[in-house]
Batch of 4 targets.
Target 1
Amino acid sequence: MNIIREVSAMRAWSRQKRAEGKTIGFVPTMGYLHEGHKSLLSASVQETDATVLSIFVNPLQFGPNEDLDRYPRDEERDVAIAKSAGAEVVFAPTVEEMYPNEMYTTVRVPALSAMLCGASRPGHFDGVATVVSKLFHIVQPHQAFFGLKDAQQAAIIEKMVQDLNMDVRIRTCPTVRESDGLAMSSRNKYLSVEERATAPELYRSLEQVREWVEQEEWPIGEILQKWRDRLQNMECAELDYAEILDYPSLQQPDLNLKMKKGQHRWIAACAVRFGQTRLIDNVLIGTHAKAETVRQTGGNAICI
Amino acid sequence: MNIIREVSAMRAWSRQKRAEGKTIGFVPTMGYLHEGHKSLLSASVQETDATVLSIFVNPLQFGPNEDLDRYPRDEERDVAIAKSAGAEVVFAPTVEEMYPNEMYTTVRVPALSAMLCGASRPGHFDGVATVVSKLFHIVQPHQAFFGLKDAQQAAIIEKMVQDLNMDVRIRTCPTVRESDGLAMSSRNKYLSVEERATAPELYRSLEQVREWVEQEEWPIGEILQKWRDRLQNMECAELDYAEILDYPSLQQPDLNLKMKKGQHRWIAACAVRFGQTRLIDNVLIGTHAKAETVRQTGGNAICI
């Protein structure tokens, strides 16, 4: 398996593959791979001829007081995982290689970037859209795979690709969870024993919200209130946000609305801080909301 | 020659050409072609295997009080010109084809967009960068050709391509002028007889500015003052801006600075309103500033 560090070499590899008529699958990551990333790699290997995994901790998407410097890294382990998953290339450029000049250009999807994680991380999604745009131009994939754990990110990338006529198909894959329901995340390693024991409450509360919504008894305003009360009572955790929005438009539905089967597709999404560590999770509810989660212990991930 | 109106058909054509190992040249325009566009087509036909001309009057780059609706159009004539210049395809999509959904995504190069034409046309260059980004993704050219008459646009596109790692080479070609020096523009047709007689004063004043700068006697602050006085005295015309900036950074040099041979590359650029019609022109001065203009009556356009 190749480890490529230069933009020009990555582009040359992609040109060659395309000239040979091969399809390229792409899994962009910040490294420190977990089962969620593995499921993306597995989908890509299954559905394209040649898979590229990128590892790049992108400074542009971190705010000044965020965890850029302490973001976990383990390239050796990541390369071994990529290899055993069947990837052909790991693209792992330096920051200088990705940003050799002062960046003047930004790709923005402001209408999808202001809410949820964008509210507490201003500029974050501009950084994401810009770096993914760069990576798409370098890797030139036919398909790119994103996890639904970062549902807002997936919605933004899908809209960017549609709006800018980028020639790549975006595939979104179910969130992969520990057996107790905690969504896989590179940041989970920072949890203390006590925090780790509490953290599955995020997903348990999301399953409760889905049940409440699907019962079609209460308007979502009431469900939101009950859910926020529950999250605010969590031990050693501070609620950042808990929202129910239309997906993928991320617009706030009328709070007096009740779910009607087959008519809505909503996302219930939350972010909670455990000390310095901020975890996010979500579930999709309603039309086409099937198969958006898979437990580590089994189940077939169906990417859409 | 093909006239293509659909994004999917344009993309299929480009894919086919690339699969055949052909290089694609691209000349994006808003139509109503003049000698300036012809010189771009000619450079593309000479230097690539297959040339695409696009005609698209892009609503995104027009302000609410600008001339979108009255922008001149003559597709039949444009197609004939493209054909006789040796283009293989005219890509002429409708607004609905280019913007089938509400646009949420913007590509911006704010540090190069606030001055010169950007100051009096807020949002204009965001619209340009966004539509050129879309067109590049659709046409997938190896090289794209832009005229130096729109020097700020060329600087923005070059920086966008560099920052976002777009896989296309940007070529800039000299401004083509009438025999009396007036820069070719689709908007020249709106000039009255009197305005048309006055309009060459823009270029005459620019040549004067170049001479003053190259004499290295006066600081640019003084030259600017003399130049603005001259333009403000023009008949039936209103000065919008006259600036001397570093090129392509578009930063304002120290006004006390005098030119030093081989050390600077500056642009002198101005915009003047003749009634409803706004004309722009510029010259490059200093290092590598050769060959940025060519008279219709002869001369070899050397695109860089």
Target 2
Amino acid sequence: MVIVMAPGASDTDVDGVVTHIQAHGGQAFVSRGVMRTIVGVVGTEDVLETLDAAGLPGVVETMRITAPYKLVSAQNAGGAATRTTIRVGGVPIGPDTFTLIAGPCAVETPEQTLGAALMARRAGATLLRGGAYKPRTSPYAFQGLGEAGLRILAEIRDEVQLPIVTEVVDAADVDVVAEYADMLQIGTRNMQNFGLLQAVGRSGKPVMLKRGLTATYEEWLMAAEYIAQRGNLDIVLCERGVRSFEPAIRNMLDVSAVPMVQRLSHLPVIVDPSHAAGRRDLVVPLARAGIAAGADGVMVDVHPNPETALCDGAQALVGDVLDELAEAVATLPPLLGRTSAAHLAG
Amino acid sequence: MVIVMAPGASDTDVDGVVTHIQAHGGQAFVSRGVMRTIVGVVGTEDVLETLDAAGLPGVVETMRITAPYKLVSAQNAGGAATRTTIRVGGVPIGPDTFTLIAGPCAVETPEQTLGAALMARRAGATLLRGGAYKPRTSPYAFQGLGEAGLRILAEIRDEVQLPIVTEVVDAADVDVVAEYADMLQIGTRNMQNFGLLQAVGRSGKPVMLKRGLTATYEEWLMAAEYIAQRGNLDIVLCERGVRSFEPAIRNMLDVSAVPMVQRLSHLPVIVDPSHAAGRRDLVVPLARAGIAAGADGVMVDVHPNPETALCDGAQALVGDVLDELAEAVATLPPLLGRTSAAHLAG
Amino acid sequence: MVIVMAPGASDTDVDGVVTHIQAHGGQAFVSRGVMRTIVGVVGTEDVLETLDAAGLPGVVETMRITAPYKLVSAQNAGGAATRTTIRVGGVPIGPDTFTLIAGPCAVETPEQTLGAALMARRAGATLLRGGAYKPRTSPYAFQGLGEAGLRILAEIRDEVQLPIVTEVVDAADVDVVAEYADMLQIGTRNMQNFGLLQAVGRSGKPVMLKRGLTATYEEWLMAAEYIAQRGNLDIVLCERGVRSFEPAIRNMLDVSAVPMVQRLSHLPVIVDPSHAAGRRDLVVPLARAGIAAGADGVMVDVHPNPETALCDGAQALVGDVLDELAEAVATLPPLLGRTSAAHLAG
Amino acid sequence: MVIVMAPGASDTDVDGVVTHIQAHGGQAFVSRGVMRTIVGVVGTEDVLETLDAAGLPGVVETMRITAPYKLVSAQNAGGAATRTTIRVGGVPIGPDTFTLIAGPCAVETPEQTLGAALMARRAGATLLRGGAYKPRTSPYAFQGLGEAGLRILAEIRDEVQLPIVTEVVDAADVDVVAEYADMLQIGTRNMQNFGLLQAVGRSGKPVMLKRGLTATYEEWLMAAEYIAQRGNLDIVLCERGVRSFEPAIRNMLDVSAVPMVQRLSHLPVIVDPSHAAGRRDLVVPLARAGIAAGADGVMVDVHPNPETALCDGAQALVGDVLDELAEAVATLPPLLGRTSAAHLAG
């Protein structure tokens, strides 16, 4: 069961609901987002039937959710019509806008990061991505600059005025990453690292949750539920390609995930064509496909000198290809009734 | 090796090339399309090295092809820049246009087929699809009307003035289907039915070749090569979703296939979002994604009364959803530099 | 619904049942195997409810089958306890025995075929496999010797006294292949070539049906149902590996298929480790795994000179590796309560 | 590059090698196992060429490893012939023995754990498995007893005299779990949780590393390399089924993984048929298949009262089915030249 609080409900109202649930023998999970506060209730059939919370102060609605994920389910949002908009440092990601997120795969130097950030801004990006902690398949590959990378990102943010999205790979690092970042990213390999999900759920920062390599939609939403259950409803889902049998591509971008997950959940969904494709010449066609399928945003790698990149240079956009992406981002979303997030930041 | 003939090369020129190849100990495969005639050469390294066919009458160019598929390879077309345009009853499918193909999954009655054809035409379709021979997983399911269905299709073609695309499932039926149809379709389950591929290769009709359920790009192009090797280069490839681990969707539309196969081959590529999705509410987002990824056309199911359809009614477009598709087909392709095939037929 | 006839039921009895079904408005499909004759009934709920066939002469039992496949369902066999034994030229394949089938992937010459057949017999094989019609991904690869290959197989059969299993790839070839072969094989790529399935269903010969590359158990059994529906219940299912994401192996042998399909159907199930592995050093471990999982037989490629084989030489067993296989076939099945088919032929 | 130390090499010898490597500009990773100590070297081509470490005290051999995983590669073990044996509380897992690991999926109560442990021992198990920290797809599912569960496991170990294997899901928990456990298990969802891999690498305890849901063999071995790189070479790999398209089974046990990974790495490989199957009636056939494919051990779930289990009761063995497993474990490994680990513990 989920109890939806009114937009103006006070902390006292929320506490009252929690106390009421506990007095009836249930467990309460408060999840706060920019747009709504929701209280999830877990308990036996008896508890749920006798709860009768509809009349409590600040409560808008109570509803039984049949999906195994409760707090992130579209059922508690009145369906797709009221999907959620998340704000990251003032920049919206949601159903009415289109948000471009761009930046280097890995932060290497201040110069490279600034170069990439300027490229991102020129292409219409309103959020800057960049990795300081890099999960790599090989222990001998470049693992990122760690906190030094976070400091570079923060300096560039001040210079280019773009809020930053960066990955956190270990629960022990959540506090330090949250100090610098505007949005925390959970990578594909960590989608079911439940300790990490709970830690970012407690962090108070918006979270971007990438889909696991062969995660089903339900498993992906259950991972989001772990974050929401610890109090954080500001979650953006990111489709980045799934593992397939096809040897010619790195991953297979599952564009069906965009409309499907938007029907199942009220959370925004973006696509990452760079990591799906793994090669520059596929990024723009896949970005266009993601936008056309209804994605709320796109995240791409850019790099001023892809040939010397320490990580995934083959997929980083540069030059003409980046111009093509900028054009797609400018022209396609309006056809689908969206405003560019570029004009809405602040 | 592939020998490309000049647009105006005569049959005598082509015969001369074939004789020359055979005299040198090689095998020759002549493949004719609307836009070009190509002669494939198979032989030992010795044969290929001593062939020296560049100076023969009517020969434009000779080239070694490293891909295992020769006649359909992009290498013999000077790359993506000179991709092929196929014509079906005068309607183009190729890089400069965008072609909508629509119609009922299965032909049931003249009234239902006419109703669907009129819906198709109103939505902007320039080709009519419809199945008279249906390959079904169950031997107890409706297997199509057979030749009676072909006759209905032919009558409706005369009435609505749309050339027809219809599936052939058995080599023994190719002649009768080719009598009625403007384009022969090879279904997913038959992508490696090599006898059938060779039979449609000899038929002289344009062929639409659907991708197998987990066929790699290379296997798909090798299947096209079987058709081309029997003399027919008028082939359109159709991506229709691949089998995946995700239980919430019937098949996973692989939009990467569109730009990838357009790089590997000179043949047109379209997408079929209806059979990928298996449900009406996903068809338009997937159609948009396919168009945006660069497809040369889209094929969809329509039905005047989906709830009584004998085959795949759940995915047939109708009413508002069909209007949405029509709008996507009208607005997206021009953004990508394409003209609607509707204005070019004839 | 399925009507099971008594072992001694006469043709008149069967005709009586068919007439009775048709008189009640149903369709009847008679399917004959070595062990039983079954009549499938397709019709509306009304037809099935009023049929009342239990008392007709020769009828043992009538039962409603909930699986979409009727004639091949385990439900009509009283469960796994009464699984079917098929006989191929006198050699049994079924629950009480273990059958080794071996031979060359492709018939090349009489000498090579005889060499392979002698190797097969020494290793304990009681059936000889060999391909005269080869479905190949490339139109330029060796396509088999055709009827000349069948003649070689027939000669070698006389010489080594092993019944032969050989593939048929086109419905038009079924009659000629059935003239020579003791068992017809349907390959992976043709599992849903429904015209071919129906043709072998009418042939009166036992059929080996390989699983499609990503066919579900249900689709595989529906393909078997197509054969059974045309009158032929002597079908052996062959698991030969499925397509996967793992680049280090050609296909992934799905050993779960063996016990699962044995629960769903009364038909025998064997495994083909050679085509799954694609490399010699994996064949014996996979053969052992298949035997241990409960397979009713194993089919492997052998070749006297693998390095010169025209087809799949890399997976053909020879020398020590074949000896290892022979030992596995001799020692493992008795542990699982099976008798070697070698001692039961005739 | 990998430098193999002599069995009797002293710490001073190892330190000397490390100093030598660093003096030449390389990085050194010391990895210690029961059977060998290996020093991995990472550096530029120049460093590797000029290193010349073969003559240093205690060095047996230096070799260049072409695989991306170095310390766990079969290349540094002289091939499959010298595969490693790991010891867990005295119990061997390796090429000469066969080890059964059994116990409850989750520790629930002392009584349930004791019951399961006694069942395990009667079936021939020499190691006891049991989960105190359970990674669950749903945040609302039973998450394990935590340290209280570890204490139960430790008590039961004393009572039944079986060393214990238990999962650790968070790097922060490694110390406490290592205090109680004889072997640490890394679960499927955490195969690429690199912080956790490094933490167990530093723990000094043997590690069981389950394969990720669609991890390639190379990714799996790279995950093992993360553990080895932090100093720990006592690693056992566990195949537990991969995600597939087949809806009738939970996961598809990839038996090819056993011989393939044994060729690629010197580490032992076991299979977990319980989690692959997800249903009791498949566990024994799959266990037999794993043994026959050459696995060094099998791990299964048992439970005294499966119908009340808090986790995965449907797959827990009990009664006759457990007896069947015990028989398979007793009879199959000797056929393959293995001794039961039951007789070798101590």
Target 3
Amino acid sequence: MAAPSSPVLFTDPTSEPCRSVHWLCKAAGIPLRLRATWLGRGHHRQEAFLRVNPRHQVPALLHGQFALSEAQAIMRYLCELHGVLDPWFGESLEERARISMLLSWHHHAVRKTVMLNHNLPVYYIPFYVGEAKHPRPQKAQVEELRANFAESLQQLEEFIGSGHFLVGGRLTAADIAIAPDLTAMDVDPDVNEILAAFPAVR
Amino acid sequence: MAAPSSPVLFTDPTSEPCRSVHWLCKAAGIPLRLRATWLGRGHHRQEAFLRVNPRHQVPALLHGQFALSEAQAIMRYLCELHGVLDPWFGESLEERARISMLLSWHHHAVRKTVMLNHNLPVYYIPFYVGEAKHPRPQKAQVEELRANFAESLQQLEEFIGSGHFLVGGRLTAADIAIAPDLTAMDVDPDVNEILAAFPAVR
């Protein structure tokens, strides 16, 4: 159970990076106090939250007086704080380099091409704000967005190879950072068709 | 001088992430062999390079049999290899967290909003491939792109504050990763006007 001195995670479970931090803490046994910060209700623009993260993004962490944003940085900080950096961020120089490469790659690959460019405009934003305000893109445009992320998924397929995990044959921060952007596709009725060519990713 | 066993950096000096890695190695005294890999001549699509980085991006590193891509990962790997991780990636838990936050933030802030969304289409691509093939965007569109990166620059301004560096009052990996995407604006005749509101960034 999280002690009153445990770090506080400001989190919206509908946000993939928030889910990454929360999942890592569950898997690594890191105690955390959660503070729901719903994007849909504008909590991230309220003054109380802006004092924690003036850049109005979740997740954000407050540990005593120390405030930190960016999911990857929060994951690394919490693992180091609890002395479990190596199992999650790499046991050897090469493992650490590989995990660090995947975390950097994720920003401009899966996170950008699958989640921000496709999942958000195609299903999430129309659902949250209503199709009247933000119409779902036309079929041809959706096809184009999907063509744009095929390369990211193919690269991810090659990273995974014949195993179940990205690095070291075990769950690491790399899997945890990337997976939520993929499971977010589960709301898509075409998900099986989209992922058919990528058996390792699926 | 770089020994024949030193890591080989496949680099195109016109690429900002390549310049970051090269700059860090110069500043940290890390020996490196350079292999010019010109994007403009398609070297990144040639088979010899694809064996080093199948994802056809520079920079890429080859150290013995170990191949690594992603500038941030290469910087971290080389610093660790040479025992200088702390001065460049943080001397304390909080410094490491702050540098890690800035490196993650950079991907979706300055790198994306200034460089990929604005600098590339507005000056670099029309210059490299010719305006006939890739016309410079119209004035109104350029204005819109500039409005989109104002928030990133404002955030960077706040990170820098009244000092000269982002973290710890000294040059770190965070400055080195971000600076080339800003100095790339120097080709813009409007650069002084754009940066007038951001004295610390300038």
Target 4
Amino acid sequence: MSAFTSGKKKNTKPCVMYLLRRGDPTMFETFWRGPIGESATLVIPGYQTMSYFSDVGNLCWFLEPGFEREVRRLHSLVGNAAVEGYHVLVGTGSSQLFQAALYALALPIADAPVSVVSTTPFYSMYPPLTDFLNSGLYRWAGDANAFDGNDYIEVICSPNNPDGSIREAVLKSKSGKDIHDLAYYWPQYTPITHMLAHDIMLFTVSKCTGHAGTRIGWALVKDKEVAQKMSKFMEQSTIGVSKDAQLRAAKVLGAVTDGYEHQLAAAAGGDANLLFHYARRKMAHRWCALRAAVAASGIFSLPNEVAGFCTFTKDTVTSNPAFAWLRCEKQEVEDLESFLRENKIITRSGTKFGADQKVVRISMVDTDEAFGIFVNRLATIK
Amino acid sequence: MSAFTSGKKKNTKPCVMYLLRRGDPTMFETFWRGPIGESATLVIPGYQTMSYFSDVGNLCWFLEPGFEREVRRLHSLVGNAAVEGYHVLVGTGSSQLFQAALYALALPIADAPVSVVSTTPFYSMYPPLTDFLNSGLYRWAGDANAFDGNDYIEVICSPNNPDGSIREAVLKSKSGKDIHDLAYYWPQYTPITHMLAHDIMLFTVSKCTGHAGTRIGWALVKDKEVAQKMSKFMEQSTIGVSKDAQLRAAKVLGAVTDGYEHQLAAAAGGDANLLFHYARRKMAHRWCALRAAVAASGIFSLPNEVAGFCTFTKDTVTSNPAFAWLRCEKQEVEDLESFLRENKIITRSGTKFGADQKVVRISMVDTDEAFGIFVNRLATIK
């Protein structure tokens, strides 16, 4: 059964747990209902955004200039990724940009499809995104550590979905190519320790601000030819990317940056207008609650807490991954996903991520209500 | 060179002709700047549309209920396609739905990719949309009339892009499948003669209302299993479709239907709130002007004018295709696209549509300014 069609029903408590199977970032909604919400309101008159074209002089001709501007402003504020000298591309979520990167990096005239690999545990969507059309250009080849060869595309997700680990490429061949999926490299999830400057870096509004339904991601790409090919992918696949969605994303990203700039100007306290501070505080509370529940239960374990100096917030902080990678230490439990389902906690099995059955992934970014029910149930499992 | 990256520059007269190479439906902008525009304005607060999910009980879980409602209302108003008993699916433009239909109709376990065919001249994007990922599921096989075999997917575009002809399937095997691309089956382009009820019918906001930049298309699908597979394609490819874009499309489609309902209620005259009447009048003027220019020049020809009784407007009208399929009758001109480019008219060659070099496709839905320059230049070519 699909991860997205699990029969979840709204407003019925036993089923609210289904939400934790997906990383639906509804946690952020409370922030956007706060004082900053007003400035993020989008108004589009009936006659706007009618043309296919956004910026005909740009190699990504469907990229709204206002969206590109806000992407550059936000990275400059946070310092998590270099933008100087990079091409900005927009995609219908970062899933589309991931496929665009495969398309751009694969050799169209090769005898065999290029192998796509990632270190286990890897994001469960990478294999189907690579293979669902049975493309002759690329083929999923599993764990990067088990790969033997020189030609490959290695996907590095850091912080990693599902386990939150900080990662670097494990393969080092000159003819190999890397895609860096940095969806979670934002201050609410992890200390920002470096301004990254990889060849292809993918981001998404979903995980940055919580606007998953807008379906907007972006890529920072160093090489012009690769950027052109990626843009070509979006052109073929969907004749570009919705302008309305881009305007929405620009509004939301702009509100985040404005929140910090205005706060500095006003020297005011509180974090109601500071997305990353607000969200980091909430995430840290949730991780405390989860670790307490795990300790109370006594049969589970989590990855060790990791701390570092955050160059954005200028303090030493622990990481608060968007997912909990929960392992069961009880010998009799062989299939943790099933075991938790019996306890009305719906998660995604480690097998989907190239790992074993004794581990599951759980969303840490769902609503307060869903998260509260989850930790309470977890604490009582013996 | 890509059809979308032709180096077109804004506001420079010699280059304005580049627009006619694409079917960018900017003609409609004047309508949306009129009295109806106000009611089509979209407002989205910062906290809305955050979740991935739109309607968890629907097989197309990312379909906004308000968008589905407006799709059904509009078809009920126009009478061009059956909606009763059909599943509505949303896509990032109808290009994505076309690929979703190929994915749903192909057999994943087949030895060889299924052949995708369409009668010549066919829409120039069908071959690259089918083949750009070198899929093992389906493969472009050209002209339907030249196809020999029982297993195929036939694409029927009616009215046809590029030549405006009304089409039916030419292949009749029991194991063959059809996709009906009805992007242009709206009253501004052609008389609505039947309420169509094919298995898979594709539509797009671009050609219906002119909102190409919103990137929203929809499919009406009879079979539940096919609809599920098509929905699965959008899930894999882009994790659904932008909610903001769907809300925009819903607003625009709703304004069109409201325009007719309010007009009837007020018994008012004029067509400023009646999209199809307004657009049909403009299209008819343009076709008159084009036929006059062709006659003045003396070296070109166009498909014959076709008329029929329109069940929507309840009168007999001629068709006004969104593209002119212009043929050159002058013996010395072998490559019409190049010949017209020398005359500063940028078009798309017949070769892109599976036809010959002596014919080109020209957009009839561009701005008044671009269209005016075009017909004036055309009339003077001898």
